[in-house]
Design brief:
Layout: H1 3-30, E1 34-35, H2 56-71, E2 78-84, E3 89-94, E4 97-103, E5 109-115
Antiparallel strand pairs: 1-5, 2-3, 3-4, 4-5
Length: 124
Amino acid sequence: MTNVLVTSLIENFVMAAMQDDALKALISDLGEGIVIDPELLEGCSVAAHDLDDMDAAQAAEVAAHVFFTLFETKVLEQTGESAEPEEGEWSGLVNGFRFVIERDGDGDLVVDFSEAPSVSPSDA
């Protein structure tokens, strides 16, 4: 490899790491208590009237849409892990961040994003 190519690869890696740190800080500051309203859902494949009955995959779609809309970050992966419509709770991962969707005290659906705990080799 040429020095120019190596330098370019290092610069790209450093920029990606800085963007990742900035996104983590943004999620830490603004990632909780986000009310899912019809305006926020504009363009989402899951309609507001379908939220109460969504399955885990649909919850992941909603969380991914909110993530993209609010944090202006392309969603590369989304996974719905659980869906408990009767209890009003859904969870999963978007781009490695944990999401939980649940009803707040006012009856609104809210989504919280947080850093997913890392899995150590002994946990795997």
